[in-house]
């Protein structure tokens, strides 16, 4: 699933919008000091149970950040 995330310069996610592969990409407007990055999250599928999709996307927001160098999700440091 394609995911657009709003994040700060350290990669911490403040907003997330998911789009199925065949759908238009949602646009997000970042605040000052924030960026929008589009990522592919293959672990999440629009074909799956909607509650599972929500659970996985919530997990992304709570436990991952964007590595701004590689533009990929990386686990938050504990």
Low-confidence sequence ranges: none
Overall body shape: globular
Strand residue content = 35-45%
What's the story with the biggest beta sheet? 3 strands, antiparallel
Radius of gyration, Cα only, in angstroms?
12 Å
Structural class of the helices, strands and pairings?
Answer: alpha+beta
Order of neighbouring strands in the sheet with most strands: 2-1-3
Order of helices and strands: EEEHEE
Distance between the termini: 27 Å
Mean pLDDT: 89
Share of helix, binned = 10-25%
Please give the number of β-strands.
5
Number of H- or I-type helical stretches: 1
In short:
The protein is of the alpha+beta class and 78 residues long.
Structural summary, described in words:
The chain has 78 residues and is of the alpha+beta class. The chain has one helix and five strands; from the N terminus they run βββαββ. The strands form two sheets. The protein has a three-stranded antiparallel sheet with strand order 2-1-3, covered by helices on one side. β4 and β5 (72-75) form a beta hairpin. The protein starts with a strand and ends with a strand. The mean pLDDT is 89.
Characteristics:
single chain; 78 residues; alpha+beta; 3-stranded antiparallel β-sheet; 5 strands; globular; two-stranded antiparallel ribbon
């Amino acid at each position: 699933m394609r995911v657009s995330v709003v994040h700060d310069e350290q990669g911490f996610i403040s907003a997330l919008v998911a789009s199925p592969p065949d759908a238009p990409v949602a646009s997000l407007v970042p605040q000052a000091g924030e960026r929008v990055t589009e990522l592919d999250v293959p672990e999440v599928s629009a074909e799956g149970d909607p509650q599972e999709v929500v659970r996985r996307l919530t997990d992304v927001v709570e436990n991952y950040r964007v590595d701004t160098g590689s533009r990929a999700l990386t686990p938050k440091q504990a």
